[in-house]
Amino acid sequence: MLNRMNRPAPAADVATNQQDVAETIYRLLVTLFRGLPRDMSLTSIATLSTLERSGPRRITDLAAIQGVAQPSMTTLITNLERAGYVERRSDPDDRRVSLVAVTPAGATYIHTRRRAGAEAIAELVEHLPDEEIATLTAAAPALHHIRELHNQRRDPGPPVKRS
Amino acid sequence: MLNRMNRPAPAADVATNQQDVAETIYRLLVTLFRGLPRDMSLTSIATLSTLERSGPRRITDLAAIQGVAQPSMTTLITNLERAGYVERRSDPDDRRVSLVAVTPAGATYIHTRRRAGAEAIAELVEHLPDEEIATLTAAAPALHHIRELHNQRRDPGPPVKRS
DNA sequence: TATTGTTATACTCTATAACTATA
DNA sequence: TATAGTTATAGAGTATAACAATA
Question: Which nucleotides of strand D lie within 7 A of protein CB?
Answer without folding.
Answer: 3-8, 12-18, 21-23
